[in-house]
Design brief:
single chain; 317 residues; mainly alpha; 0% strand
Length: 317
Amino acid sequence: MTVSPPTPATPTAGATPAAPAGGLSSALRAGGSLAGVGFFLLAIFLFGIMDSMIKGASARYDTWQIMFFRGAFSLLPIALLVRQSGGAAALRSRHVVGHVLRSTMGVAAAYFFFWSYSRMPLADVYAIAFAAPLFMTALSVPVLKEQVGWRRWTAVLVGFGGVLIMLRPGQGVLGWVALMPLAGAFLYALSMLYVRILARSETNAAIVFYFIVTLTVVAGVVMIPVWRTPDLVDFALLAAIGVIGGAAQIVFTQAFRLTQPALLAPFEYTGMLWAASFGYLFFGEVPDKAIWIGGAVVVASGLYIIHRETVRSRQAA
């Protein structure tokens, strides 16, 4: 899913200006929105493929080694994004500390998610990770100093109720292992709030590039003690993880250039369909009733939060 790795999805960085309303321009804008949704759905599909490959590789390789390949080979398609965004000029930054904080949290979130794939069904990880929008809403108060009304706070509380349904505390079904993707969702949410801060002055290319470089360097150092030389087939698999992830990043960014985030956000939950499908086809995994019920509660809460965000944005406009 898009939470591996965290990605800048903000309307202020790299978005195309709105066309005047009416006539041909309205039709073109509608066409752009439709194309943006198509790009977004393709990105979610590619991330699902990548996560399935990560899960498969985790049976033979340490999480840090997989993360290294994920970062290193992502630099190939990401270089195209940087070039399209203006080259080296797009990487100039006035907020080095902000990039360090965002990248550090992003690397930690990626580790928790990648590690979880090796020990939990793919759909279970996705369902728990959908708690990220709930964390983002709650954390926006102390981090961004935003006002969150009672409706969104209620949605957050209901959503965390759904998380508890999935975790089933006291029953020993998932145990502490399930806390790993939950921790990943928390760190992903925190990193995305820093992305919103960085997007006020930084380009999408810079935010993505510095995260991928940090991921590659950190994982490259930490993996040294657990390095295992892959054979040709596994090398191709690990390289494909990075290339597909980088390509998904570019498609994801293009979607937000064409379409407003409020329209795209609900489609992110289609990732659960891919996770359940790929988990069943490739690994024989079948999510139990608690995952479906709790996941549905979390998704419903997230959709309501998106709705309220859209309403507030319109009112402010």
